[in-house]
Amino acid sequence: HASAHIALLPGDGIGPEVTAAAVACLEAVAEIHGFQLRFSEHAIGGVAIDACGTALPETTRAACIASDAVLLGAVGGPKWSDPRAPVRPEQGLLALRAAMGVYANLRPVQVHPRAAQFSPLRLEKLRNVDLLFVRELTGGIYFGAKTRDAAGASDLCSYSVAEIERVLRRGFALARQRRRKLTSVDKANVMETSRLWRETAQRLAAEYPDVQVEHQLVDSMAMLLLTRPADFDVIVSENLFGDILTDEAAAIAGSLGLLPSASLGDGPRGLYEPIHGSAPDIAGRGIANPAGAIASAALLLRHSLGMQVAAGALESALWLALDEGVLTPDLGGHHGTAALTDAVIGHLWSQSAVDTAVVA
Ligand code: NAD
Ligand code: IPM
Ligand code: MN
Q: Is residue 57 in a domain?
C-alpha cells in the first residue's frame, strides 16, 4: 500500500470521540512504522438523517466501497429512536454492512486484569478466557421482510445454505489459527433456519477433522458463557444470537467499551467498529472508553492492510496503557478519552525506541 484510504464514519453520540482516538493512534502507528494513511470523513446514522434525510447517503456508501477499510464509531440515539420514525440511524449501518458484503463479524474477547474487577464473574472464572465470536452479519432476521399493520407485526428470518456455509468456513479457518475448537450456536430445537445451520455445520465439520466441533443451543450458550467461559475458542452464530451473546461477553470482559470488531467479506476490505453503541448517557463529556475503537483500528491494520507488526504494536500499547492504570470511568478510573489515547501513543513511541535500541 502506497497510501491506504480509510473511510472514517464517526456517526453519533460518543462515535466522534472514540473514532478521533483511534485515528490519533493510527496516525502515530503510521509515522512509527513508516507507511501512509489517507482519511476521508463521511456522514452516517443520525447525523446523516439530520443533514440529508437518509441514514446512509450515497456519497458515504460510494466512499466506503472505494476505500481500503472503513472505521466507524457508532450510530443512533434518543433523538432518532421514536418507534414511529420513518428513517432510523441503525438502518444506515445495516445497509452499509450489506453494501460492503461483510458477512463475517469477528468479535474477539480477552480479559485485561485491570478490567477483571468490573466483570460480574469471579476472577477464577476469567482465567484463560480467550474467545473469538464469528457473528453472521448480513443475513437472518435483521434483513428479512418486515411487516406491520393494525393487528400486529412480523420479522422474517431466512438463511440460504451459501450464507451459512461461508460464515462457518470463516470460523473453521480462524479456529485453525487458534486452539482448533469451534462452537456452533443455534436454536435447532425450534427454528428451521437453525436446523439448516446445524446440518451445514455438521457437514462442514467433516472437512475440518483437525477442528473439534460442538453444537450448543443459544439459551444454554448464554448460560455456559457465564459458567465456563474459558472452555470456548471460536464461537459461530447467526446474526441476532451473535449480537446478544457478544454484549454478554463484553460484560464478562468488564466493560462494553473494550470490545472491538472486524467485519469481513471475501476480500481484504473491511468495516471496523467497537461493539458498543453511541452511549447517549455519556456523549460529549470526553469520558468514553476509546479502547474498543482503538482495538478495532488494530484489527483494521491486521485484516485490511496486512500490517501484522503494526497491529500487534497497537494492541500491546493499548494493553500497557491499561496496565499502568490509565482508566476511564467505566473501569473505575478518572481518566478521560484523551488521556488514555495519549498513554497508548506514548507506549507506541517507547516500544519503537526499544525496538530501535535492540536493532542497534
Ligand atoms: P450503548 O452501547 O450505546 O450503551 C450501553 C451502556 O454502555 C451505556 O451505559 C453506555 O454509557 C455504556 N458504554 C457504551 N460504550 C461505552 C464506552 N465506549 N465507554 C464507556 N461506556 C460505554 O447501548 P444503548 O444505550 O443500548 O444504545 C444507544 C444507541 O446506540 C441506540 O440507538 C442503539 O441502536 C445504538 N447502537 C449502535 C451500535 C453501533 O453503531 N454499532 C451498537 C449498539 C447500539
Ligand atoms: C451492534 C449493534 C447493531 C446490531 C445495531 C446498532 C444495528 O447492536 O453492532 O452490535 O444489532 O448489529
Ligand atoms: Mn449489538
A: yes
